[in-house]
């Protein structure tokens, strides 16, 4: 039988501060899950809420964990807790092995959408938030009313690690955002168009290159830089547009259109979701197709719940 030895303070005088032998087969696995949550949250209140137990019960479990590991593990620091050097050294391996165990269990379980109460975290872009998130929510809720979807913004830093660890279930984004290390399946394509308010003084003809560049434009900037992909393509043609303002989300563009003579260049799906009366035109120059994908990590490939989620996203969005 595979056994793991963990020590307590009582052996400190016997073996370099490492003591009591503990048979992991007689230890509640829940204690290790508790420690994992505590090391992440570093706050007793938040950790207790995540675990669904009372603070006194959590404090009792922390006392037991301190006895097992022969270390304080977490110590008071301001309004929260700070990990000790010992806790820091076990935090990564502990979380990784627990995730592997959870993944192993999930791969052997059949996911039943009618009874499941699982939480899935989906990393998406601003584009998805404005266009396809409502469709995903509707499809998932109709098929699995107990499942909860949490949508989070994509951040390039640490994305692969978050998907690998299971903090993110799947990613829905354009191919330019999806890392090569992830598995992916194509959902649909989109293309940029120009949008103006109804009754715009320029009229209703599709713009030529000269007119397009002369118009006053609003754009979207996620990184604080005013110029983006459209400006790069114009530069390839030796041209430049008149950018007046940039907002941090597509959601801020409709009000600008309705209250001014500004025009915007956005993917067609985004334009079709704008509130108010707008007019949509093709661009006077070619831009690459935007290809959107659903992506996941190899470690989640056999997870029946993750596969169910991927399949329902694909059925909902593919080729639309």
Automatic annotation (TrEMBL):
Q: Name one GO molecular function term.
A: DNA-binding transcription factor activity
Q: Does the keyword Methyltransferase apply?
A: no
Which SUPFAM superfamilies does the record associate with it? Periplasmic binding protein-like II (SSF53850), Winged helix' DNA-binding domain (SSF46785)
Going by the UniProt record, its keywords in alphabetical order are: Activator, DNA-binding, Nodulation, Plasmid, Transcription, Transcription regulation
Indicate the segments forming the HTH lysR-type domain, all copies.
Answer: 27-84
Instruction: Report if keyword Nuclease is assigned.
Output: no
Q: Which PROSITE patterns match?
A: HTH_LYSR (PS50931)
Top-level taxonomic group: Bacteria
Give the matching Pfam families.
Answer: HTH_1, LysR_substrate
Name the family the entry cites.
Answer: Belongs to the LysR transcriptional regulatory family.
Please report the name of this protein according to its UniProt entry: LysR family transcriptional regulator protein
Organism of derivation = Rhizobium gallicum
